[in-house]
Structures are given as C-alpha cells and as structure tokens.
Design brief:
Elements: H1 2-15, H2 19-42, H3 51-63, E1 69-72, H4 78-83, E2 86-87, H5 92-98, H6 102-115, H7 124-132, E3 138-143, H8 150-153, E4 163-168, E5 172-177
Parallel strand pairs: 1-2, 1-3
Antiparallel strand pairs: 3-5, 4-5
Helix pairs in contact: 1-2, 5-6, 6-7
Length: about 180
C-alpha cells in the first residue's frame, strides 16, 4: 500500500500543486485509511471482552499443572497467552509449516471434531485414547457458543467415568480428563 500511495502523492503533487492537489490526494487516500481505522475502532476491547474466558484462563494458570494440555474448539490463543499452558492444535497448516506428522494432525482433527460435535453424546472410545497418548494432564474448555444445543454443551457431564467438571461459568466449563 505504501508504494502506490507515495507514487500517487508524487503524481498529484506535480500534476495539481497547491490546495486542489491536497484535496485530491486526501480524496484518493482517505477512504482506504478510514476503512482501517473503522475496523480497529469497531473491534471490542479484548481486555473487557469475554470475562468468563479470562476467568477460565486465570483458573487454569492457578490450578492446572504447568505440563497440562488444554483442548478448545477453535484453538483460541487465550490459553497459551493468559494461562501459559499448551494448547492441543489440530490444524493442517501446523503439519505443513512445522513438519508435524500429518497422521497425528488428522487424528487431532478427528478428536477435536468429535469432542466438539453438536451432538448430545460423546464417543469416548474415539476421543479418549488420542488424548491419553499425550501423557499429560488434559483439560477441555467447553463454551456454549460452540454448540447450538444445550445438550451438546453439557455432553461431557454425561461421561463421568472420563471427565470431571472442575470450573464452571454461565458461558463455559472446564473439564479434566480423569486418570
């Protein structure tokens, strides 16, 4: 953007010197800049947004062991940044960019898809083994916004042999994988 802007400024300055050139330059460049500012000022302040998410990260930072791995539906960066805990990533871009085993990434994608599927029941036979292979304490953040039904939001409560709810707020819960 900078090179075309400088070129346009130089062209306008030589073609239309004075106030008319300044107004023309402003008319050419101002809309693009206003869009950027509107995008910035239109965003919610992350320091005030999602109080339940901030409380969850504070709880994880205080109660989850440093070696814990946290599973979350959309791999939000709050957990590594605010709680200083590892996040269970499953994006193909990580396999390609960092040389991760593509089979492991596919396994993680399936695990995340099943864990956060909008279904009332959890297939623990498919979800639990890949998580246990990490040999670390596992915590799952479950947010109401990730599901369209309340039954799916509370499905880990229906797997008490595998998961225990350890933190609860109106919009999210944290579950610990037992064992």
């Amino acid at each position: 953007y900078l090179v075309p802007a400088v070129a346009a400024g130089g062209w306008v300055a030589t073609r239309w010197p004075g106030r008319r050139g300044a107004w023309l330059l402003a008319a050419l460049l101002l809309p693009a800049n206003l869009v950027g500012y509107a995008g910035y000022w239109g965003e919610a302040d992350p320091r005030r947004a999602d109080p339940d998410g901030r409380a969850a990260c504070a709880w994880l930072a205080e109660h989850a062991p440093p070696a814990a791995v946290v599973v979350e539906a959309h791999e939000r960066v709050d957990v590594p940044v605010r709680a200083a805990r590892r996040l269970y990533f499953g994006r193909a871009s990580y396999a390609e960019q960092w040389g991760y085993d593509p089979t492991e990434i596919r396994t993680r994608q399936v695990t995340l898809a099943l864990l956060y599927a909008d279904q009332a029941d959890l297939d623990t036979l498919l979800v639990i083994p890949p998580l246990r292979r990490l040999s670390a304490p596992i915590y799952a953040i479950v947010r109401a916004e990730d599901f369209t039904s309340a039954g799916a939001f509370h499905k880990l409560d229906r797997a008490p042999a595998s998961f225990e709810r350890v933190f609860e707020r109106p919009t999210l819960s944290i579950y610990r994988l037992k064992g």
